[in-house]
Amino acid sequence: MIQFPKNFYWGAATSSYQVEGNNANADWWPWEAQAGKERSGLACRHYEFYESDFDLVKSLNHNAHRLSIEWSRIEPREGEFSKEALQHYVNVLMTLRVRGIEPMVTLHHFTNPIWFSESGGWLNPLCVKRFLRYCDFVVRELSRHVHFWFTINEPTVYFSHAYLWGMWPPQEKSIFKMKAVCDYLNDAHIEAYRLIHKIYQEINIAPPAVSIAHHMQAIVGCDQSLKNRFAVAIRRQLYNLQILDYLTRHKALDFIGVNYYSRHLAHAHSWWIGNLLMETCQEKHHPLKKNSLGWDIYPEGLGTVLLDLKDYKLPVIIAENGICTGDDNERWEYIQSHLKNVHLSLQQGVNVTGYLYWSLMDNFEWAHGFGPRFGLINIDYNTQQRTVRDSAKKFAEVCKTGILEVI
């Protein structure tokens, strides 16, 4: 039996574009058609069904829920803010609050308004100013309902997928553009951090807790050769720690939000910088079970990345951790094994204060469409019927008691 601390945050996460449906003012909407991808369409119709969805959240004993605000709903045209959309999110937050569920709110979760993207997106020198204008409008209204803010979800994933690998809109493939977007996102977080704290101070509310949701992988060497050990060291710094070092130097993190899914198996065949920074093992060494997207299932890696965060001396919230699988028994095994490693990190002195599973429900998984099934709740996309999975019921007992029964 494993006992977690009292006042631990237990719950799940969603993002607006992936569950709400009909986000036609976001840049992903036209891109899906242009790129020949599966269309997000109605998604899970969570924009309509949020109240009954949160009844399910309450029934599963969650005391926290992470969600995102859809910028393209709030500001569908530049400088034109929708009070109706803002009121919707006020209603969403109040619906959580009356059920005793702590909202944790993300301001940017991969999508941008079409007007923003068409005018250069995160490469336009005005991007930070535009983001702050949106943040100011949202935070002033929502501040009385929110303590925890994530300014930007997985900035390293966003700038690499959209500006280096060319997998997401705007499908750029430029290391120079990627670096520029990285810098702008860092600046956007720092300025948004200061703005949010300033707003809370102005309206005399207790200081908020502000962070990013940072994607971290367990970076492991395929073998213990000098090249691979060096590759692991520089990737660990570059991929996992560099952004945290930068933001903590600017005193712009109140806690650290961690999104963890998998392992990165480094195997550099030469000392060339490209091999050292990016080459992975292609020879099926150290095989592990994989999820339905082919990602390695490596629960001990969560303990490793959490231990790496100990020196920052900040609270840590696991903002996403989950598996896409057609086997719900596998989902429970995944949750259980990862929670064991969370508890181990607590014993080693890491101040983990919450665990949010990804995702509350099956949803639109970006370029992969509706195929991957991450949810604690199954969605029948033909009928929009929700069915609570057995893994969700087992997790609900952990959420209720703070106790994980282990074999």
Q: Would you kindly provide a written description of the structure presented here, covering whatever features stand out?
A:
There is one protein chain. The protein has 14 helices and 12 strands. The protein has helices at 16-19, 28-34, 46-59, 71-74, 83-98, 114-118, 127-142, 155-163, 175-202, 226-249, 273-278, 300-308, 328-347, 390-401; strands spanning 2-3, 9-13, 64-68, 102-108, 148-153, 209-221, 256-266, 316-320, 352-358, 377-380, 385-388, 403-404. The chain is α/β, with parallel strands linked by helices and 407 residues long. The chain has a single domain (2-204, 238-259, 287-404), classed as TIM Barrel.
Structural class: alpha/beta
Radius of gyration: 20 Å
The low-confidence parts are: none
Query: In CATH's first tier, which class applies?
Result: Alpha Beta
Assign a percent range to the helix content.
40-55%
CATH fold name, please?
TIM Barrel
Secondary structure tally: strands: 12
Please tag this protein with its features.
single chain, 407 residues, alpha/beta, TIM Barrel, 8-stranded parallel beta barrel, two-stranded antiparallel ribbon, 14 helices
